[in-house]
Amino acid sequence: MASKMSDQARSPSRGVVIAAILITVSAMVILVELFSSELLMFRYRHSGVLDDGAISSFVLVKKAAAKLGWGSEPNLLDMECIPSPCLKKDPTFGWSAVPGAFTVILKRRKRDDSDWETLPVKVTMNSDESRWTGMPAQSEKPTIYILGDSFALGSGVNDEQTFAYHLQMANPQYNVKLFAVGGYGLVHSYLRIEQLKSQVTERDIVIICYADFYDVRNVAAPSRLRDIENWYKKRNLPNDGSKIPVASIGNDERLSINLVSQDCQERRSYCDSKDPPLSETRAISLRLIHEIAGATPAKAYLLHFDGAKDNPVVQDCGIEVISALQDDFGYFLRDDIVGFDPHPGPYWHYAISRKLISRIH
After folding, report:
1. DSSP code at position 162
2. Tens of pLDDT along 196-245?
3. Which residue, among 344, 337, 334, has the nearest Cα to 107 in the 3D structure?
4. What is the DSSP letter of 182?
5. pTM for the complete prediction?
6. What are φ and ψ of residue 294, in 5° steps?
7. Three-state SS for 177?
């Protein structure tokens, strides 16, 4: 009897065993996640490649939970521009904004739901393809030129919610011109300043928006073209045949820009290849920033809004940097358009505007 009682005392209960197993599995998941995240970051920083075929333990668990009915897949997102189209093919930029007043209808729905929820957004594009920022331009005023992509444009937010609008309201002594289009990079900013440089004076300001992910855009890297291909596939749309500008530095150290096809069906072997080394893409980003900043006598700023603080492109750009990364604010700052759009929402734009207003007088 005593021996039997001793065996029972030594044997853990079923609840303790289950708890131990769960703790062990959780610890393993966390370790795998940390390792995979560090591995992906290492690959990106040292080779310039983010393996879009790689998958983390978190994603695997999330997908398994969805299959078992314990969770749901992300919303399906779409958008419609009224009137349509909002964009047009462009012989210089590949694609550009259509001037006019638009209502962009953002759409979302659950994968198991047939009804779309919609959110209308007001977007006004001026005749010069800049976004409306609250005041008509006046020739006697100096101008703040903002060059960037969909983040800078304010994809998903109304005209009065962009950081450019807030900057204009705080600085009525300036014209604020927002030249930004979804999918653009520094190569597009370079092409834009080439168009504008004859009218830019020493009284003006040029804000060059930059994020680490611009590096692959500037060279139309394979991963970038795959992203474009996936965008069309998710919407069951044929590729519209737009060209994409590619920046390169030749053996003679000259910067050149060429328009090439963005359609992976025409360039399958290239699309399936690896991205150029990070050192190469960063060198091109750095060269583009130098060229944009040096193209005019205006004061130039680099607005670094996404990426790593120690990015050498930012450290070596040679112009004043306005760092607007998550860590720079001291509080959580990555709102969204209530799940309708993956771009940051009005809180982000307001915070960015405060950064700019504090530096630009």
Report:
1. S
2. 999 999 999 999 999 999 999 999 999 999 999 998 888 788 888 889 99
3. 337
4. T
5. 0.81
6. -90, -5
7. strand
